TrEMBL record:
Superkingdom, taxonomy of origin: Eukaryota
GO biological process, one term: negative regulation of actin filament polymerization
Source organism per UniProt: Amphiprion ocellaris (Clown anemonefish)
Similarity annotation: Belongs to the SLA2 family.
Subcellular location: Cytoplasm, Perinuclear region; Cytoplasmic vesicle membrane
PANTHER family the record matches: HUNTINGTIN INTERACTING PROTEIN 1, HUNTINGTIN-INTERACTING PROTEIN 1
InterPro entries cross-referenced by the UniProt entry: ANTH_dom, ENTH, ENTH_VHS, I/LWEQ_dom_sf, ILWEQ_dom, Sla2_fam
Role according to the record: Component of clathrin-coated pits and vesicles, that may link the endocytic machinery to the actin cytoskeleton. Binds 3-phosphoinositides (via ENTH domain). May act through the ENTH domain to promote cell survival by stabilizing receptor tyrosine kinases following ligand-induced endocytosis.
Pfam families from the UniProt entry: ANTH, I_LWEQ
Name listed for the protein in its UniProt record: Huntingtin-interacting protein 1-related protein
Organism classification: Eukaryota, Metazoa, Chordata, Craniata, Vertebrata
Amino acid sequence: CEAVELLKSREELSINKAINTQEVAVKEKHARNILLLSMCKGAHTFWAAVNRLPLSSNAVLCWKFCHVFHKLLRDGHPNVIKDSMRNKADLTDMSRMWGHLSEGYGKLCSIYLKLLITKMEFHIKNPRFPGNLQMSNRQLDEAGENDVNNFFQLTVEMFDYLECELNLFLGVFSSLDMSRSVSVTAAGQCRLAPLIQVILDCSHLYDYTVKLLFKLHSCLPADTLQGHRDRFQEQFKKLKSLFYRSSNLQYFKRLIQIPQLPENPPNFLRASALSEHISPVVVIPAESSSPESEHVVETDDLFDDLFGTSAAIDPFNFNSQNGILKTLSAQHLQNLFSISLLLLCPPFCLFSIRLQSGRLCQALRGRVSELEAELAEQSHLRLQAVGESEFLKAELDDLRRVREDTEKEQRSLTEIERKAQANEQRYTKLKEKYTELVQSHADLLRKVLGTQLSALESEKAELVQTLSKVEAELAVRGEELERVQSSLATERESGVKTAEALQNQLNEKVKNRLIELELLLPLQKLRPRGLELQQGELGDLVEQEMAATSAAVESAAARIEEMLNKSRAVDTGIKMEVNERILASCTELMQAIKELILSSKDLQRDIVESGRGAATMKEFYAKNSRWTEGLISASKAVGWGATVMVDAADLVVQGKGKFEELMVCSHEIAASTAQLVAASKVKADKDSSNLQRLQQASRGVTQATAAVVASTKSGKSQIEETGESIRKMSPQCVLVLELETRLQKERERLGELRKKHYELAGVAEGWGEEEEGEHEEAQSHCNQYI
């Protein structure tokens, strides 16, 4: 019992020496003594001594406690973790308290305490993992009990564990001034020293995480593990950077060899990539001093810590026994000390063996790593030498070829000089002959020019006569043009008078209608007798006209098809090509008109079915008589336009008609269809699907009309270029185009008249502002076609 008490007192002494307020790194010998002495009773003595330290009032003291406690958790007795769990609440409170500081050791202590708590919880939950995390692949498989769910959860816990390690790593580096050589100062070493334990933990956690992820990818779908892969990628980048930065610090170079992670993370989606994974090995190199001297120093220090330095009060002061031990060798003194410790603490024997075997294994692993690195370097040098040898062989072959080529060139140089002299002689002869040829050519040119000058004089006289004839013809054409312009002016005046007369009639009707309205008399009283019969006839007339229009379009399409077949049987060459193109475009226009008529019928049905105050279709048509008249007029115009266009196309195909007339008919059809669209659209609902269909069909007619005009113009150009008889009709074509311009202006006047007509119809029918706005939009659409 006295020996045990003595060990406890000496352990407390080592604890007080290791954990103090000086900002220097914990001495390795003091930490090692604490590990050796904790083998007797676990961590009870350690915590008894630590609880008397003011850890909550001094951040440096708490930082060094964390360092010693981390080493004790890693390399101490297995019971240390269990004995320390009862202090978890105190450690948590201390971490929260130090976390209120934003910088310095306070913040680092908070992060370090969280790491130690996480480490204890991990090992309590996974007791198969030792404190130093050293496990074989078989032991790693046994830890998951061959259950994919256990491996999944174990990987998550390792991620959390490694995250705490990386946080401490980053916290220490961010607290240092990396622009200075902090690793050679006592304050810098005080902060960097615990990172050795962190590096040892991180190397194992990274290795096990890679192996577990490959195992999980062999059992689970890749999508399920997307979160695991993302988290691993993030931790891989941090750990690679931290290992690289640590390996460049002078402090670590003499204490530990830090491995470097690969350039790219493993590809877990490829199972064969597991064979490319190399477990990172942290090597702690042997110290420069000899093992015997190291043990002597450590033994002396531990001897002093255990038995004190005062011979008068210490019963184990062997130096006072007549100087017997003074002559003992270092090896004998070590053996005697080991026997003493074995008598005092039997568990020390096992720990000593484990510690020595661990150091030996670590040294051997370091040597193996060095030999592997040397082998890899030699292999690289060998490959480099082989490459250089191949390169030198290739250069030698190139030099040989160059030398052979040079010899060949030297041999042929004499031959080249001889050929050059011969060529120079030939050049002199050719030059003389060329001079003779130039002289004879000049004489010949003089003779030829004299002949050509006389010919040019005669041609000049002929051109003067032709120019006089052309000027006379132009004068005659000018007189004809003046007569035509005078005729057009007369006709234009007569159109204007007609329009004024129509305008006066419309104004008179409007006045009469306004007078009727001012009298606010019911319309029913103004209706003449027999109006019911007229309403029925008007409703039937709409259906008849729409049916007649459809029939006219169908007939026109059939005639175009007949003309197309006849042209293919009779015509050849350019004429057949032009006729086919024109008739094909006319066919497409007829199809577009069919679609427009069908859309108009559907839209009229929607208008009638929507109500608008009428019970039946005939009553609706009768009530809106002006709108109905406009619809009938537009339908008639479409049918008439289709028939006239087919007649014009027939004459063009036969060679008896004019291309311009066909283009005029196309424009007229566009205007008629625009009138039909405008008449149908006035009372339609803006959101009606049939209205959208009608507008789409109207755009189709416009495009088809443009295609007819384009094919007609193209055909006309082709026919004119071939020199056929159409050229003789050029004066008439000019007149037709002039008339077409005049017709265009008259169309514009007609559009204005129609606009007035619909405005008057709106007033007469009692349309509201919404219908008037729709009418204006429809009329604008109509004018665009015109």
